[in-house]
């Protein structure tokens, strides 16, 4: 197994996993909405997306991490 950061070449696989997550949360399936959402995250670089790939090279999981932003610290 390996964990790596998603990029454009993983857009469809990441969208597939995100759509499955949405279904788990009782949302209707909508691959194209999931794909547009993930594409916007990659475009805006407002979250990091990591993927889990099994030994058969199938992508089986993902995690999104958001950069920490605070209004308490001055801009640098």
Description:
The chain is of the alpha+beta class and 76 residues long. It has a single domain, classed as Aminopeptidase, CATH 3.40.630.30. The chain is 37% helix and 22% strand. It has two helices and three strands. Strands 1-2-3 form a three-stranded antiparallel β-sheet, covered by helices on one side. Helix 1 crosses helix 2. It starts with a strand and ends in an 11-residue tail after the last strand.
In short:
The chain is of the alpha+beta class. The chain has two helices and three strands.
Lay out the secondary structure.
Elements: E1 2-5, H1 11-24, H2 31-44, E2 48-53, E3 59-65
Antiparallel strand pairs: 1-2, 2-3
- Spatial strand order of the main sheet: 1-2-3
Number of strands: 3
Mean pLDDT score, rounded?
89
**Domain count:** 1
Query: Looking at CATH, which topology would you report?
Result: Aminopeptidase
Number of helices: 2
Q: What are the segments in which pLDDT stays under 50 over at least 5 consecutive residues?
A: none
Main sheet specs: 3 strands, antiparallel
Give the SSE order as H and E letters.
EHHEE
What level of helicity do the residues show?
Answer: 25-40%
Q: Write down the Rg.
A: 14 Å
CATH superfamily: Gcn5-related N-acetyltransferase (GNAT)
CATH architecture: 3-Layer(aba) Sandwich
Organism: Oceanospirillum sediminis
Protein name: GNAT family N-acetyltransferase
List keywords for this structure.
76 residues; alpha+beta; Aminopeptidase; 3-stranded antiparallel β-sheet; 2 helices; 3 strands
């Amino acid at each position: 197994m390996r964990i790596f950061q998603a990029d454009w070449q993983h857009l469809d696989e990441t969208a597939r996993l995100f759509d499955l997550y949405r279904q788990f949360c009782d949302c209707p399936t909508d691959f194209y909405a999931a794909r547009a959402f993930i594409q916007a995250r990659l475009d805006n670089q407002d979250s990091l997306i990591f993927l889990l790939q099994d030994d058969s090279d199938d992508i089986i999981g993902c995690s999104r991490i958001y950069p920490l932003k605070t209004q308490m610290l001055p801009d640098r």
